[in-house]
Design a protein that fits this description.
The structure is a single chain. By secondary structure, the protein is an alpha+beta fold. The protein has one domain: Secreted effector protein pipB2 fold (2-Layer Sandwich). The chain contains 2 helices and 4 strands; from the N terminus they run E-E-E-E-H-H. Strands 1-2-3-4 form a 4-stranded antiparallel beta sheet, with helices on one face. The longest helix has 18 residues.
Length: 114
C-alpha cells in the first residue's frame, strides 16, 4: 500500500469553511494610471455593506489589491498627503495625480474634502 492510499489517522479532511456566495458590487467610478512599468486601477464600488475604494497594482500580470472602506478614505488621503509633501524627491506630477484621484473619488463617494 502506498502512502496516499492509507486512510488518514485524522479522518476525512474537509476544506475550511464553505465557499462564500458572490457579493453583488456596483462600480461607481473607475480610473487607471500608468507609472513606469506599473499600472494602477482605482475603482470605487458599493455593495450591501457600503462603499469602498479598491486599488489594484498590476506589474506584468501580477496583481496586488488593497481595499479601503469609504469611512477610511479621509485618513488614507491625509496619510498620502503627509508622505508626498514631506518627501521632496517625489515627482510632483505623481503627487498631483494622486491628489486628483483622491479628490474625484471623495466627491463620488459623497465624502467631505479636507
Amino acid at each position: 500500500m502506498i502512502s496516499n492510499e492509507r486512510p488518514s489517522p485524522y479522518g476525512h479532511h474537509k476544506p475550511y469553511g464553505s465557499p462564500k456566495p458572490p457579493v453583488n458590487e456596483d462600480t461607481l467610478r473607475s480610473e487607471k494610471i500608468q507609472i513606469e512599468r506599473k499600472s494602477f486601477q482605482f475603482t470605487l464600488k458599493e455593495n450591501p455593506r457600503g462603499r469602498f475604494l479598491r486599488i489594484t497594482e498590476d506589474v506584468g500580470g501580477r496583481r496586488d489589491t488593497i481595499i479601503i472602506p469609504a469611512p477610511g478614505l479621509e485618513d488614507f488621503k491625509k496619510l498620502i498627503d503627509e508622505i508626498c509633501f514631506n518627501n521632496i524627491s517625489l515627482d510632483k506630477s505623481i503627487i498631483w495625480i494622486m491628489l486628483y484621484i483622491f479628490q474625484v473619488f471623495q466627491i463620488t463617494a459623497g465624502l467631505r474634502l479636507i
